[in-house]
Amino acid sequence: xxxxxxxxxxxxxxxxxxxxxxxxxxxxxxxxxxxxxxxxxxxxxxxxxxxxxxxxxxxxxxxxxxxxxxxxxxxxxxxxxxxxxxxxxxxxxxxxxxxxxxxxxxxxxxxxxxxxxxxxxxxxxxxxxxxxxxxxxxxxxxxxxxxxxxxxxxxxxxxxxxxxxxxxxxxxxxxxxxxxxxxxxxxxxxxxxxxxxxxxxxxxxxxxxxxxxxxxxxxxxxxxxxxxxxxxxxxxxxxxxxxxxxxxxxxxxxxxxxxxxxxxxxxxxxxxxxxxxxxxxxxxxxxxxxxxxxxxxxxxxxxxxxxxxxxxxxxxxxxxxxxxxxxxxxxxxxxxxxxxxxxxxxxxxxxxxxxxxxxxxxxxxxxxxxxxxxxxxxxxxxxxxxxxxxxxxxxxxxxxxxxxxxxxxxxxxxxx
Length: 416
What we know:
alpha+beta, Rossmann fold, Immunoglobulin-like, 4 domains, six-stranded mixed beta sheet, five-stranded antiparallel beta sheet, elongated
């Protein structure tokens, strides 16, 4: 029993340390603003920003923030319109990223053509290239083509047979509701099955006139899900989408003074006309505080681009977060270990009482004139039972005490 408890304690500590120190390894890259032909510069920048956002959603890359790349271009006197692949590689080397992405969007008649290249900064060779043609409005170019291109760059297939995709069927109590998926309006109407949905957390808003419904759900690889939503009159629904996703969000309402915590992006909250303060936190990024006024005019979407920390402050923040995580793990280990130690102390106390009882029975036997008979046998049995119980409790106290001491030592070491 002692070996089992000791082994479990060691495993808990080892696992906690492993979790506290582990981190995901992602390919670092930077996306240069796309060049545009027969489209405005503002549209090209908007498409570039959306492509960055879609890349982050794939959870495959660590994407450098646009402002940092602009700063590099200013310092090096690079001109984006004149920046060829050699220039892009040089910018990537200065930015210390693994990959650099360039792109061009051309409009010819009613057709948009999007060409995107991923270049290896170390070798200067093109790793991947994707071309998309779309006879569509620029809204579809923004919402669908950028997502498709990002998925291709991340190595995902275009169909739902890929292991990283799932599907979800959305049903509303009144059919014909429009869907907003992760803050993006779509042309889908309920009931509808959404295929090729990237596995992970998603926020869906269904709206039909002044009726709304919301849900946040987790899609799993290769699994189908059915969502049943009840449309009803409600206040405005606010979809909060951060770039990158999975940021921790704390909401404070100014008028009602209510607080909402424990939510992560993407998320949907029900609102009434009010002013909100959103505090957003994600490791590796500056803490962000935003004031937002809800107008109670139907579903609303708030996109928030998080600003990455520079390497110095990012390392400092990660050190603090690792210490907090280790401290939390240490506390989790220390509390039950303290309880085990208290249990060991109680068992030791009981063993002392049993030994005292055994001594009392022994003195009674020595002083008794009864040298045989049933009374003598009963006292003798009580003496043996008390001594045996004392031994058992003492052994258990040693085992639990050792486990508790080991856990406390490990927990306090992690905590401090």
